[in-house]
What does this fold into?
Amino acid sequence: MVYLFVIDSLQCGGAERHVVDVGRVLTERGHSVTVACSVGGHFQAAGESAGLTIATLCDHLVKRRFGPGFAWQVRRLVQELNPDLVHGHLYSGGLAAAFAVAGRAVPLVLTEQTEAQWRGRGQRRASAAAYTRATRIIGVSSAITASIERHFGVPSEKLSCIPNGVTIAPEGGGYRHGGDPVVGLVARLTPEKDIHCFLNAAAQLAGRFPAATFRVAGDGPLRAELEELTAELGLTERVDFLGVVHDMRPFFESVDVLAVSSVAEGTPLAIVEAMAAGVPVVATAVGGIPEQVTDGLNGFLVEPRNPLALAQRIGSILAEPDVGARLGAAGRERARREFSVEAMTDRIESVYAAASAPHPRQRRRATAAPEPRVAEPS
It folds into this structure.
């Protein structure tokens, strides 16, 4: 099969990592995968090394908006490749993919990684149009698929819930014992990740655990603001902002607990990576996180925007290594059983098969759809 993935970029992020991981497994299974993006980024080299064709189509990033130039370039790529299926990811990639297949009998699958609560009225109308054109829609959590069904009227038979997965090493992993306590966090430094909450929790833990340190992997627009808050809290010598980390395995081997302080999420890859490494997780109960973390079994869940609750749960693990070991072991077993990238790709291929065999009447209607009326940029 020839597949075309469309995403805004391959910069650092969970959705971008997801695209490369799925593309790699599909390529290993003998398929041809091209990834169209407005610009490349952190994961471009990994995608190319895995055998994916990366097509960067613009000289600027198209993010959280419809980019007519980007969409026209994707449309031309559809004409050139004649793919068996187009798969759009995230808001901009999904809109460009929907535009590109308009009037063509090419199955369209869309994947939503979050509930996209930032969308205003105009963005919601654009999403509704893309959802109508899509043959199938994947949400990485049941909260996302339920939101699409409830707020956009998408029929349930068009929706599939497929949680994110990661590559899981066959051996290794286990709770870290000994040494000074280390608490980790992996996230883009953006408002929805609420790193402010994590830093305030760290300030509370600092007094109880004088040797504890905190490691933040990731970058983003709020970095300077967060570093300033770190200084105000007196944590400059205790908090290390690592920026983009290319190899996450040493990171997870170095931490005792992974904290997730987000106020909005899909199913974070960092949680699955931590589970696969045997690292216990303390996370906010938002989005698809409760589908990954069962409170008290393979981690702890806390309410969002509550630094005290986050600090208390993290502290309970740091104070009792046996608790951390139990949670970590349960997390690793669940990750191996449910959240491997291979199992995720199996389920995605099942969606592709269903999308590629629509009802004949739907096929005729798609073929007869009018050409889009967006003026081509000069």
Observations:
- The longest helix spans residues 321-338.
- The radius of gyration is 21 Å.
